[in-house]
Amino acid sequence: MSHYRIAVIPGDGIGQEVIPEGIKMVEAAAKPFDVTFEWVEFDWSCERYHREGAMMPEDGIEQLAKFDAIYLGAVGYPGVPDHVSLWGLLLPIRRQFDQYVSLRPVRLFDGIACPLAHKEPGDIDFYVVRENVEGEYSAIGGIQFEGTEREIVTQQNIFTRTGTDRILKYAFELAMKREKKHVTSATKSNGIYHSMPYWDKRFANMANHYPEIQTDQYHIDILTANFVLKPEHFDVVVGSNLFGDILSDLGPACTGTIAIAPSANINPERQFPSMFEPVHGSAPDIAGLGIANPIGAIWSAAMMVQHLGHDDIHDVMMGAVESTLKAGKALTKDMGGNANMQEMMAELMAHMPS
Ligand code: NAD
Ligand code: IPM
Ligand code: MN
């Protein structure tokens, strides 16, 4: 019998709606197996910020450290500036637990109308491997002469050798396990003088260790164009924190909706808990309407159980997602249907093995 303790942070907006559905799917899928879960909920959010002046308690990170994994909805809501809410909760978790890999699969499912012409399931099936703790995301810099015509703002990017090499290595190791064995590097070394030429150099160095892997690199501008024009080209795409963020919304948009996209914030050495969350945000425009697509949260939960060692439960969950989408009966609005979240959940549950 395996038992796991999961810290649950539904967070803001539709995070609070989709996370309970992800938990229901895990519980239903885990039933035939010898596995139990304890879900411990934390109400850390913008609501807490308004009430108590902080997104999470001072010892929040310490509290989370004891769990086997963290399952998070979304952070950020109008009323609290985004950089305050995100640097008060989501980003410190990624950083303190050294979750330096953000693994974001992109897949076109059977049954979903692809916005790109002439693309079939199988044509879009790749991973974005995003550096998750350094790069362009930094709080280093500041403002001088504030409030005057002479205002100067600086923002520091951080690229360490350790940080760059370990994310590149993760991408190459992932590609080694895949059929195409192909890694694409996202860069911008024509315009960004120091960090991106450095990234290219470390990429070329890492590629030398993997002669079986085919590699290429694109500047981020033409890379976004190629996501749209020839998504079938890609297998594993590795990028810095900001480039990976952008590519991991664009990729899923090319498969019909960003709302199904999952992400795993992984600490591969397992010194700290990893965190699983949909790629999408709190969607204030539809929060409270009960029409959110729960699949991003469900697929993220499936990645979480897989990370904990249970491919079997993962496969049951993803089987239900695949057959529900293929049946195409209860799709939410973002996918062109008119089902609400509960109608889609009923369909997903009906596609679980009894
Ligand atoms: P968003 O992902 O919340 O929404 C973008 C669009 O996609 C909206 O029209 C929304 O309705 C739609 N959408 C998103 N998820 C959906 C779902 N599950 N079902 C159906 N439609 C869905 O992005 P945004 O508007 O840029 O951000 C809103 C807030 O969320 C901001 O505060 C932002 O900082 C935050 N955010 C948080 C995370 C996170 O916690 N990981 C990720 C992205 C954005
Ligand atoms: C994501 C989100 C976050 C990020 C924001 C909310 C800070 O967009 O998880 O993709 O940029 O990492
Ligand atoms: Mn994002």
Task: Provide structural commentary.
InterPro entries: ICDH/IPMDH (IPR050501), IsoCit/isopropylmalate_DH_CS (IPR019818), IsoPropMal-DH-like_dom (IPR024084), TTC_DH (IPR011829). By secondary structure, the chain is α/β, with parallel strands linked by helices. The chain has 2 domains: about 190 residues, Isopropylmalate Dehydrogenase (3-Layer(aba) Sandwich), CATH 3.40.718.10; about 140 residues, Isopropylmalate Dehydrogenase (3-Layer(aba) Sandwich). The chain is about 40% helix and about 20% strand. It has 12 helices and 12 strands. Strands 2-1-3-12-11-4-5-10-8-9 form a 10-stranded mixed beta sheet, with helices on both faces. Strands 6-7 form a two-stranded antiparallel ribbon. α7 links the parallel β8 and β9. α1 crosses α11, α6 crosses α7 and α10 packs antiparallel against α11. The longest helix is centred in the C-terminal third of the chain and has 17 residues. Manganese (II) ion binds next to α9.
Multimerization state? single chain
Full CATH superfamily name of the largest domain: Isopropylmalate Dehydrogenase
Q: Into how many domains do the coordinates divide?
A: 2
Unreliable parts = none
Question: Quick one: how many beta strands?
Answer: 12
Q: In terms of structural class, how would the helical and strand content be classed?
A: alpha/beta
Mean pLDDT: 98
- Globular, elongated, flat, extended or rod-shaped: what is the shape? globular
Distance between the termini: 21 Å
Bound molecules: nicotinamide-adenine-dinucleotide, 3-isopropylmalic acid, manganese (II) ion
User: Tell me, what is the CATH class of the largest domain?
Assistant: Alpha Beta
CATH fold title of the largest domain: Isopropylmalate Dehydrogenase
Roughly what percent helix? Answer: 25-40%
